[in-house]
């Protein structure tokens, strides 16, 4: 059983324990609440509920060694806070409640409901039994609150509120369930004061809980015009170093190579009705096609893209996913620019300094914009590398429930000469992980997230799992029979590469895109990335064998390829950061949600990671949920140091999107070499919209852009 499954079992046990303790307390009270003889059936049910609660509570702590083995982060608050909160009341309930219920069942004695002083010995201890079970139930509910509300880094004041509420429940139960004791002991007048005190305590508890909720709600609302606070100091050996002046993100434009060829493109965002090859018509937001036009360049060139917004009312930007552009060109609304509203335009300009497969998409309300079609492919070629004879881009996407491979939700057919070198660039432009199946040939994974793999080996009989935002470049020699590529999320779609003479290229750059080259000399750049192939819609070939995606093993990249140099050397980290990914009840933009959190908070309340240029930062990322979270740091790549304590044994793994599955712990190394204010977020964009985002801020960098404002900036 893996850590994610252990966490799920622990959650089920926690809910079961809380419910069983509440039921045991109620049935214990009910079975003795009226005058007369015992109710054996209800007493037996109370014993059963108590036994279930004790077993569930004990089972939770039996899981702790396994959770701690996965990482201390999965068991820390359970041991330090939850254990005493639940174990002590459970022990009290076992010692007080079980003997009482057994005596009650065995004797069947007559009981006056509110007076233990005149009852037989076997029935004494009723009050202690009931209150012990109430305490156990309150502690179990408090443990759930720790998981769902307080999170992995509970502040002292939140713990004090939790303990106050748990203790208050027990006191209120004592006052409400056994009031005659107070009246008898204190007299009628003082018994009235007892009821008043109970009411006052209940009101105080309600006000405390309500006040904490209001405080959280107020803090969650990013008001219109809220800007990003500048990081003005960097902690070096515990001493803050002040920064006297700040640099706006708009000034971080990067260096342009002299006399470089300029690759110019123009994209126009629009709302349109799109008819897919299946005949289905749907409304989409596009850059002129689905996916958007493929943009290309070669190393050393300058890329210039003019973005126009024709009629997308939400606004658009261009973010270059995985490409370490200068901060001013990062395309994040409210952080590095204002959203481009209808009738407006913006020009992006940066040097092509990284070769590989990347993609672009809007970063304004991206959870909706990308899903509806505002995405496209960006490829940079290295002229020093041998080009493949056929170069095919396959962007996997879900368009409103329609699984697409490239531009089709049916089959797309390409042709390649037998024996020629084929490169297939797989891009997951969706928010969920995708699994790809290659049939008809063995292949190599030549590159991951734009970085070449060192000495990749031949792969066959394995699936390729691609996290949201990630990319794999596959290469193979074209056999004499067709090669088919399928995706688990697109049952009706396939890419078929058939042997034959390559057809004439057509249609890959469309939708208002130009590919003008100017300024200097360079080798020919085609303006497309199809390698001379013409995709055509054909009849869907036979579908994949049922169950093949569930039974075929997945290639593990941590053991793929051979050790060797990566894009980033492995210097010694001089700083460490921890990022805990979880789910708690939070207010997001003032709306209560079961939010996706970072270090116990939802954006914009997540504290920023503050760095100085030149820092080497070791980042530990812990996923305490059962869902995958593909974390994407803008403007930087990271070198994977370990996953669940195991270091990579194959090629150095350099990523820009780290797909952290449920219950996993990753350690990565990041070099702070690209100044700016950068987003780091889950690329399941719905998760980002519900809070799983944070900023990485370089000291001394400021942003003039704001959340909301006249451009209605929404960076998620």
How does this structure look, described?
Mean pLDDT is 86; it is low at 109-123, 182-187, 236-241, 503-515 and 519-534. Helix 1 packs antiparallel against helix 5 (126-150) and helix 2 packs antiparallel against helix 4 (76-107). The radius of gyration is 31 Å and the shape is globular. By secondary structure, it is α+β, with helices and mostly antiparallel strands.
Number of strands: 38
Give the CA-CA distance, first to last residue: 34 Å
Q: In percent terms, what proportion of residues is strand?
A: 25-35%
**Mean of all residue-level pLDDT scores:** 86
Order of strands across the biggest sheet?
14-13-16-21-18-19
Main sheet attributes: strand count, strand direction, barrel closure: 6 strands, mixed
- Category by helix and strand content: alpha+beta
Query: What's the Cα radius of gyration?
Result: 31 Å
Shape: globular
Write the layout of secondary structure elements.
Layout: H1 3-31, H2 40-62, H3 64-70, H4 76-107, H5 126-150, H6 156-177, H7 179-220, E1 226-227, E2 233-236, E3 239-242, E4 247-248, E5 262-275, E6 281-286, E7 292-298, E8 302-309, E9 319-321, E10 345-351, E11 356-361, H8 366-372, E12 375-381, E13 390-399, E14 402-405, E15 411-416, E16 421-428, E17 434-439, E18 444-448, E19 451-452, E20 464-466, E21 471-477, E22 483-487, E23 490-499, E24 516-518, E25 536-538, H9 548-551, E26 575-588, E27 591-598, E28 609-611, E29 616-623, E30 629-633, E31 638-643, E32 654-655, E33 658-660, E34 665-671, E35 677-682, H10 685-689, E36 693-698, E37 701-702, E38 706-707
Parallel strand pairs: 4-37, 5-8, 7-12, 13-16, 15-23, 26-29, 28-36
Antiparallel strand pairs: 1-38, 2-3, 5-6, 5-24, 8-10, 9-11, 11-12, 13-14, 15-25, 16-21, 17-20, 17-22, 18-19, 18-21, 22-23, 26-27, 29-34, 30-33, 30-35, 31-32, 31-34, 35-36
């Amino acid at each position: 059983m893996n850590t994610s499954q252990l966490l799920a079992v622990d959650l089920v046990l926690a809910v079961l324990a809380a419910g069983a303790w509440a039921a045991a307390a109620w049935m214990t009270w009910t079975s003795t609440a009226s005058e007369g003889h015992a109710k054996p059936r209800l007493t037996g049910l109370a014993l059963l509920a108590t036994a279930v609660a004790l077993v569930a509570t004990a089972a939770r702590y039996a899981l702790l060694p396994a959770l701690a083995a996965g990482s201390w982060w999965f068991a820390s608050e359970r041991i330090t806070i939850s254990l005493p909160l639940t174990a002590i009341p459970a022990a009290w309930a076992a010692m007080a409640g079980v003997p009482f219920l057994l005596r009650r069942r065995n004797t069947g004695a007559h009981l006056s409901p509110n007076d233990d002083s005149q009852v037989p010995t076997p029935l004494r201890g009723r009050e202690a039994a009931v209150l012990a079970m109430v305490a156990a139930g309150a502690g179990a509910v408090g443990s759930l609150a720790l998981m769902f509300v307080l999170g992995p880094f509970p502040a002292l004041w939140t713990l004090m509120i939790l303990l106050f509420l748990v203790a208050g429940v027990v006191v209120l139960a004592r006052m409400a369930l056994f009031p005659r004791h107070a009246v008898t002991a204190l007299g009628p007048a003082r018994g009235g004061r007892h009821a008043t005190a109970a009411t006052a305590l209940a009101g105080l508890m309600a006000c405390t809980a309500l006040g904490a909720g209001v405080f959280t709600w107020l803090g969650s609302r990013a008001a219109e015009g809220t800007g990003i606070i500048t990081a003005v100091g960097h902690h070096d050996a515990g001493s803050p170093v002040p920064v006297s002046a700040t640099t706006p993100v708009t000034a971080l434009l990067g260096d342009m190579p002299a006399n470089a060829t300029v690759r110019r493109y123009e994209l126009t965002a629009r709302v349109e009705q799109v008819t897919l090859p299946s005949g289905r018509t749907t409304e989409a937001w596009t850059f002129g096609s689905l996916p958007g036009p493929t943009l290309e360049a070669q190393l050393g060139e300058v890329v210039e893209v003019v973005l126009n917004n024709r009629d997308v009312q939400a606004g658009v930007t261009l973010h270059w996913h995985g490409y370490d552009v200068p901060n001013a060109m990062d395309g994040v609304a409210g952080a590095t620019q204002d959203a481009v509203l209808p009738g407006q335009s913006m020009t992006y300009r940066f040097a092509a300094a990284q070769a590989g497969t990347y993609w672009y998409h809007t970063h304004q309300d991206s959870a909706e914009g990308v899903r509806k079609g505002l995405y496209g492919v960006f490829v940079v070629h290295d002229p020093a590398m041998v080009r493949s004879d056929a170069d095919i881009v396959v962007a996997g996407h879900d368009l409103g429930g329609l699984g697409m491979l490239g531009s089709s939700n049916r089959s797309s057919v390409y042709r390649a000469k037998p024996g020629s070198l084929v490169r297939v660039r797989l891009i997951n432009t969706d928010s969920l992980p995708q699994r790809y199946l290659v049939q008809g040939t063995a292949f190599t994974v030549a590159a991951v997230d734009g970085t070449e793999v060192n000495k990749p080996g031949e792969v066959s009989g394995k699936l390729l799992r691609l996290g949201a935002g990630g990319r794999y470049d596959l290469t193979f020699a074209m056999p004499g029979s067709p090669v088919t590529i399928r995706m688990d999320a697109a049952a009706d779609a396939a890419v078929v590469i058939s042997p034959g003479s390559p057809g004439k290229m057509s249609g890959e750059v469309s939708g208002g895109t130009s590919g003008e080259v100017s300024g200097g000399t360079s080798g020919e750049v085609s303006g497309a990335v199809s390698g001379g192939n013409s995709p055509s819609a054909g009849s869907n070939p036979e579908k994949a064998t049922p169950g093949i995606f569930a039974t075929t093993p997945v290639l593990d990249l941590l053991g793929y390829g051979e050790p060797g140099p990566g894009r980033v050397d492995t210097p010694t980290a001089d700083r460490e950061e921890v990022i805990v990914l979880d789910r708690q009840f939070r207010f997001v933009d003032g709306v209560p949600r079961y939010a996706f959190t970072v270090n116990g908070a939802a954006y914009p309340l997540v504290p920023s990671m503050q760095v100085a240029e030149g820092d080497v930062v070791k980042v530990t990322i812990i996923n305490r949920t059962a869902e995958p979270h593909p974390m994407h740091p803008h403007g930087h790549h990271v070198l994977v140091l370990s996953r669940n304590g195991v270091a990579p044994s194959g090629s150095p793994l350099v990523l820009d999107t780290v797909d952290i599955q449920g219950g996993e712990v990753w350690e990565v190394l990041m070099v702070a070499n690209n100044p700016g204010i950068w987003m780091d977020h889950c690329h399941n964009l719905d998760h980002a919209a519900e809070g799983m985002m944070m900023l990485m801020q370089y000291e001394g960098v400021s942003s003039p852009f704001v959340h909301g404002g006249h451009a209605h900036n929404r960076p998620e």
